[in-house]
Amino acid sequence: MTSEAPRSPESIYLDHAAATPLSPEVAAAMESVREEGFANPSSPHAAGRRARRLLDDARDRIACLVGHDLGPGVGLVFTSGATEANRLGVLGLASGSRGRVLTSPRDHSSLGAAARDLAARGWDSVLMPLLADGTLGLCSLPAADGTSEIMCVTLVCSQSGTREDTDRIAGWRDDAGRDPLIHVDATQAIFNAEASTPFGLPPGLAATLALAPHKFGGPRGIGCLLVRRDVALVPVTPGTQERGLRGGTEAVALAVGFARAVELAVAERGVVARRLAQLRDRFEARLAGVAAALGVAIRVIGADAVRAPHISTIAFPGRDRQAVVMATDLEGVWCATGTACASGSSEPARALVAMGLPEADVQAAVRFSLGTRTTAVDIDAAVDRLARVLSRMAAPRDG
User: Fold this and answer.
1) 3-state secondary structure of 233
2) What three-state secondary structure class fits 225?
3) How many whole angstroms separate alpha carbon 75 and alpha carbon 87?
4) Is residue 228 within 8 Å of 69, Cβ to Cβ?
5) 71, burial (CB in 10 Å: exposed 0-12, middle 13-18, buried 19+)
6) What is the crossing angle of helices 82-93 and 109-120, to 10°?
7) How many domains, in total, are found in the chain?
């Protein structure tokens, strides 16, 4: 009896950098506390105390699993997502009346918005340049003037997939005699097979770190900010909850789901990272082959740089990136022109512009991002459908 070949899926989701499906294990964990943890965890009665125990257990599990990168005794503040965590991380570190805040085109728009808010309060806002490989151009930064300094570091650029070299940042900090408070956005960075800790940060580098589970099979509507033990944080939304650092009733079931998603991601990150890198390489190699056969030149952005395993940004020079995404959507392949938060913008990805890429590549760049459920069958089917899209776009027009 011969085995039947796997069937091509009707739709292929390659936008996991924007959001991932909820893991069944995470959904089960959340459902298991639906009745037990419904109460307000600030309430003093027995139901409230049960909810508080579930919340604190989730907090401790997350901090234990990913807090190594910030050192012992790390604190954790639950937020509504990575956007709020980024905002709290930057504005919460800005205790003085003035200073300097450093951001880059790699960063999520929430970090740029926080920097603009500080600029309105009298802070100097400096946009750090990017090198050709997409990492920070540190040597060109002006010298510090002795005031407070906050530096934003995005570990994995969601626009290009390139991974920041944090060892180089630590060396620059030490050589330059600077001591900025560094806020790390680790939202896209949990699948890392190389480091001994989840994010591979040098000891003492990060003051704060933002994370959200909807990028790795967890629920939406929750995130967290990890805070190094020796760092003082000013609340942005005051309240009695979260040790006075973030007001608002905590979502217990979401916190439990968050913890379960982190447990799964950390336990499997090496295996998953290697599998995703293999699938990404398969996708890029097969797509390059079919494109070449059609006489279409494509370029993999950051191909020679250190990249996250799940993101592949590909330029189709001569083709409009939005037209490519619309055509692939009609073929049942779901991808993106950049970050989901900027999906309504007609502007190209800021990081790609800052990397000094040719204009034709910047205007034609499309992001494909893989997840734990992505299979080789998905990859091969996606390439076959993209081949049809490229064939139509490459066909000569009458008249």
Assistant:
1) coil
2) strand
3) 17
4) no
5) middle
6) 30
7) 2
Position 268: which residue type? E
Helix (H, G, I), strand (E, B) or coil at 339: coil
- DSSP-derived 3-state class of residue 76: strand
Q: What is the pLDDT of residue 340?
A: 53
pLDDT digits (tens, 9 = 90+) for 280-299: 999 999 999 999 999 998 99
Residue 86 lies in domain: 24-265
State yes or no: is 139 an active-site residue.
no
The mean pLDDT of 340-347, rounded to a whole number, is: 56
Within 13 A of 73's CA, how many CA atoms are on the CB side?
Answer: 4
Tokens 């956007």, residue located? 83
**311/148: higher pLDDT:** 311
In the chain, the amino acid numbered 356 is G
pLDDT in tens, 119-139: 999 999 999 999 999 999 998
Same domain, 312 and 369: yes
Check whether 158 has a pLDDT greater than 90.
Answer: yes
Lookup: tokens for 114: 């926080």
pLDDT band (50, 70, 90) for residue 43: very high
Q: Which of the following is catalytic: 157, 224, 335, 341? A: 341
What's the confidence (pLDDT) of residue 197? 81
CB under 8 A, 24+ apart: contacts of 243-247: 243/75, 243/77, 245/77, 245/88, 245/92, 246/77, 246/78, 246/79, 246/84, 246/88
- Could you give the maximum distance between any two Cα atoms of the chain, in Å? 78
Domain CATH code at residue 326 = 3.90.1150.10
Taking alpha carbons only, the member of 307, 255, 230, 260 closest to residue 29 is: 260
Burial class, 48, CB count within 10 angstroms (exposed 0-12 / middle 13-18 / buried 19+): middle
Give the pair of three-digit tokens for residue 262. 């982190």
One domain for residues 113 and 70: yes
Same domain, 258 and 273: no
Q: How far apart are CA 20 and CA 371, in angstroms?
A: 7
pTM of the complete model: 0.93
Q: What is the pLDDT of residue 395?
A: 56
